[in-house]
Specification:
Largest sheet: 6 strands, antiparallel
Oligomer: single chain
Number of strands: 10
Number of domains: 1
Order of helices and strands: HEEEEEEEEHEEHHHH
Radius of gyration: 21 Å
Strand content: 5-15%
Shape: globular
Amino acid sequence: MKKLLFGTMLLTLVIAVPIPTMAGIDIHIGIPLPPPIVFPVPPELIVIPDTYVYVVPNIDDDLFFWDGWWWRLWEGRWYRSRYYDRDWIYYRYIPYFYYDIDFGWREFYRDHNWHGHRWDYQRIPYQHLQQNWRGWYSNRYWEGGRRWNVEKYQLPSPEQKQELRRQRQYEYGRRPDVQKYEQWRREEQRRPQAQQPQRQELRPQVREPQRSERQGRLEGGEVERRR
């Protein structure tokens, strides 16, 4: 009777403890999750010129907000969450917005200068962003007379934007952490099917781009479809 009672109590404890608290991995596909970024208060953000991508500037990690999600690049892999400080989920694609970002934005931020033009960026409180990001995008708030608060700034042409995206895709593919991750992906794809985890049913539900809508690879990995 005592053994039965002890076994029942042990089983109850195992069921009651959530698995994500027991290991820092995405249990769906066995990929490590990024360490948490601790904020004493909700972060302030800035908007990156030429985009509707917002970033937390005063931390070492690149923490972006775009299209209602928070995004992180960690060890060559992308993760996203509805929260800035928890519940990260592995994202198998490179988010479309990333190649629209100038990779030198941190230097421009420190110098208050965007490609030779004074940049009086605006710090956006977390709650203000949550309440307004949709409307800002719909109304093209940062364009028009504001020009992202960059003085006398001229927007690049569509052709220039596409060329910049190609250059950034090439640069991204040369990052050591990205190359290491791409090598891991290739090795996973070469594994016998019987030994691979059952990913089709358990991985995060992300729509896969149609073949005709994918961006070219170069060395930068798979880019998601633009919404």
